[in-house]
């Protein structure tokens, strides 16, 4: 499988610590920590060549984006409660979300719901920027949480929406690549759940799909989604705009 910068973002990002007080777990996020800066330097550098989304390296800007999204995005994903924001030291403390990290192995209903919630965000004019699958948690109650929104902005842009969808499908495909090779039918079923969920969440999904089929985004698809599933994804999208 061709290596991708998205493939090792999680390994590069170690800016989160956990704090237990009176039996309760809290998440402490330090935006200026060196690993976090390394992560965003890498992805920002790669994005300069791509030029499809305004990713920010500056820790203060990332903190502002995350707080703004978590507090003011009213539709779509559930969000953890923010308890403390220290802009001087660029530290955020939030509640800990109990559940499973979203992955390729999630139930079909979860794939559908994550994509639907992403569509709702887009319809409401919010873009995540960093929509990799490890940023989502699903609880036993069936709620979908987003726990990382450092690159989120509010802007209505089909290009940005297409970027979100592509990063999401790319990281999901990389996560389940070996299993998908052995069972392409399951992979296609997951894609169906994702696409139909997104359509349900975003009434303007057709415009996003058209953007994904432009020359630039097709090139990105072939770069970010490993073979042969990049072609599978393109064919699925084409089917929904015929």
Keywords:
Transferase(Phosphotransferase), domain 1; 14% strand; 9 strands; single chain; 242 residues; alpha+beta; 3-stranded antiparallel sheet; disordered N terminus; 10 helices
Q: Report the CATH superfamily.
A: Transferase(Phosphotransferase) domain 1
The dominant shape is: globular
The total number of structural domains is: 1
* The first-level CATH class name: Mainly Alpha
Distance between the termini: 31 Å
Helical content stands at: 40-55%
Q: How many strand units?
A: 9
Beta-strand percent range:
5-15%
Poorly predicted regions are 1-13
List the topology elements.
Elements: H1 9-12, E1 16-21, E2 24-30, H2 34-50, H3 59-72, E3 82-86, E4 91-95, E5 100-101, H4 108-123, E6 126-127, E7 136-138, E8 144-146, E9 153-154, H5 158-175, H6 177-182, H7 184-201, H8 205-212, H9 215-224, H10 229-239
């Amino acid at each position: 499988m061709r290596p991708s910068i998205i493939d090792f973002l999680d390994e590069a990002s170690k800016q989160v610590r956990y704090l237990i007080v009176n039996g309760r777990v809290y998440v402490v996020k330090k935006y200026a920590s060196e690993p976090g800066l390394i992560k965003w330097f890498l992805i920002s550098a790669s994005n300069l060549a791509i030029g499809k989304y305004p990713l920010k390296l500056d820790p203060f800007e990332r903190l502002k984006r995350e707080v703004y999204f978590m507090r003011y995005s009213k539709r779509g994903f559930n969000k953890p409660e923010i308890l403390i924001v220290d802009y001087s030291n660029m530290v955020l403390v939030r509640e800990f979300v109990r559940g499973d990290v979203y992955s390729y192995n999630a139930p079909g209903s979860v794939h559908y719901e994550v994509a639907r919630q992403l569509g709702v965000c887009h319809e409401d004019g919010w873009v995540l920027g960093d929509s990799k699958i490890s940023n989502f948690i699903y609880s036993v109650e069936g709620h979908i949480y987003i726990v990382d929104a450092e690159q989120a902005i509010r802007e209505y842009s089909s290009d940005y929406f297409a970027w979100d969808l592509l990063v999401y499908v790319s990281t999901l495909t990389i996560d389940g690549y070996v299993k998908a090779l052995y069972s392409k039918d399951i992979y296609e079923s997951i894609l169906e759940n994702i696409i139909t969920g997104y359509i349900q969440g975003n009434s303007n999904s057709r415009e996003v799909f058209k953007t994904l089929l432009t020359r630039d985004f097709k090139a990105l698809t072939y770069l970010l989604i490993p073979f042969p599933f990049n072609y599978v994804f393109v064919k699925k999208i084409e089917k929904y705009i015929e």
